[in-house]
Specification:
The chain is mostly helical and 45 residues long. It contains 1 helix and no strands. Keywords: Membrane, Transmembrane, Transmembrane helix.
């Protein structure tokens, strides 16, 4: 029981880190897409 609880406690921050990484990657990809769109508009002019 104690081991299971310890495992669960270890699992929670891991998921939080993964979620944070996912959010960062998602925002980064959005920024890159916006940047590429701006560059495309600039080149088309």
């Amino acid at each position: 029981f104690l081991m299971k609880r310890k495992q669960h406690a270890f699992c929670v921050p891991n998921n939080a880190i993964l979620a944070q990484m996912y959010v960062r990657i998602h925002t980064l990809s959005l920024v890159i897409l916006l940047y590429l769109h701006q560059v495309r508009l600039f080149l088309s002019v």
